[in-house]
Amino acid sequence: MSKVIKFLQGNEACVEGALMAGMRFYSGYPITPSTEIAELSSEKLPKVGGKFIQMEDEIAGIAAAIGASLTGKKAMTATSGPGFSLKQENIGYAAIAEIPLVVVNVQRGGPSTGLPTSPGQGDVMQAKWGTHGDHPVICLTPDSVKETFDLTIRAFNLAEKYRTPVILLTDEITGHMREKIEIPEVSELEIYDRVMPEKGADYKAYRLDEGDLVPKMAPFGSGFRYHVTGLMHDETGFPSNSTENADVLIKRLMGKIEANKEDIITYEAYETDDAEYLILSYGGTARTAKAAVKKLRAEGIKVGLFRLITVWPFPEEQVRALSEQVKDILVAELNFGQIKLEVERVVKGNANVRLCGKANGEILTPEELMKAFKEVL
Amino acid sequence: MSDQLELRLSGSGGQGLITAGIILAEAAIRDQKNAIQTQSYGPEARGGASKAEVIISNEAIDFPKVTIPNMTFALTQVAANKYISDVSEEGTVIVDDSIELPEGIVAKHIYKLPIIEAARNDVGKEIVANIIALGVIVGLTKIVTEESLEAAIMARIPKGTETLNQMALQKGYELANQSK
């Protein structure tokens, strides 16, 4: 088997991964720095029998993807900050209606239209709480072109497996940089396809007694009868105001992610075994953090890196365990401390938690991070 | 850092320097090295000065941006004024000979070479100045092998322009050899 080695942008790798995962529908509205994802999808999808459609705006972009997913197609939409804000209502809709979907947000500087061509990481809390109401969230964030490819596939797998929208939160750093990537054969990959119900069975699209908390999903129009709504609904999908019913449904929605955290959460622990200090980072900024950790190690300082790969659900137990080992945790992120707040919450005072953050469109340099780190010594 | 090339190519939009950066990085990958390429986007890249940055290393490249370049390259005065002066003291500056060097620039090697003129007069198309640039850079640094560079160029250029680009590449090597 000959290896296919390419030199791609993160955004291009996202599309390559999506196609290998089985994406056959893309709808969206192009926005910098995510535009290459739409562009490449428009070129490649028709060649594999898929559909690309550019909608009138970001709201319609996600709405069409939800519709396509209901018919049984693996669907994706991609955007950046301002478009991510517009998509929030329908992310909630996909969450309650349990519709698999991949939403890519290539983060740029915000708020509002902010800094279109510069990186930011100010949307991590929005990825969790951007849509109203309690809802399950899966959010993944890559630090390289190769990992963008891998996590796009994983985002589709998790979306299908847990019938939920999955947010792939990248940033302008990884989205636009070009890097070497070895593309595997599709046969080498683990691809999860939606579990279909059996014909003739007594089908309930939202049944409550499935062991893994995820009901089987029949493609709309395939002969199974059910209703799809953003309202609280019963097992058939028809709206229900019953508080007993709502209690069971919302607990199942939250529970299906909570119960499967071990399957969903991934992270990288680098040089943490003997670490006395920790830098915690994610996405493109984690590359700065790894460079800084290598330089600090070379100076004899016992510092490690904990890199979030799954942002939501947050790897609470792993971070808490490390907080019992280290004196200080420095969170490096391109915002004013969104994940720092989460780290403070989970470490419960075990370790000092500090921030090295900025949101002016520049990437953190290893030197800046090392300077911030050394304030603790 | 010494075995790592951190290069910034700059010029005006349309001169093909982003393509040149990609080709150089792809050549490095053909040589089993690691490479990362980034570029300027948006208003900054329209007209005015545009830049592409390439890091080539035998090691894993963590931080993806060029901080202190050990080589800077410019094809226009505007780009030179903006993008070449922060070169490391041990580094190399290469500019087109139409450019007046910014005051106070410090580098180990500074080359002013007739790149655009060679493209226009010797090769016959100004558009191949970027390929001449690649010949100059690789001729001076040997950062990638000539085989890989040629293969990477041939894989990126439009069909029917092979001879033209081959001539440009050889012209670049020639300019590099003359300045050693």
UniProtKB/TrEMBL annotation, chain A:
SUPFAM superfamilies: Thiamin diphosphate-binding fold (THDP-binding), TK C-terminal domain-like. Residues 16-243 form the Pyruvate flavodoxin/ferredoxin oxidoreductase pyrimidine binding domain. Keywords: Oxidoreductase. Residues 275-368 form the Pyruvate:ferredoxin oxidoreductase core domain. Pfam families: PFOR_II, POR_N. It comes from the Bacteria. This is 2-oxoacid:acceptor oxidoreductase subunit alpha.
From TrEMBL, chain B:
InterPro entries: 2-oxoglutarate_synth_KorC, Pyrv/ketoisovalerate_OxRed_cat, Pyrv_flavodox_OxRed_cen. Keywords: Oxidoreductase. Gene3D superfamilies: Pyruvate-ferredoxin oxidoreductase, PFOR, domain III. It comes from the Bacteria. This is 2-oxoacid:acceptor oxidoreductase family protein. Residues 13-174 form the Pyruvate/ketoisovalerate oxidoreductase catalytic domain. The keyword Oxidoreductase applies. The keyword Cell membrane does not apply. It comes from Fusibacter paucivorans. PANTHER family: 2-OXOGLUTARATE SYNTHASE SUBUNIT KORC.
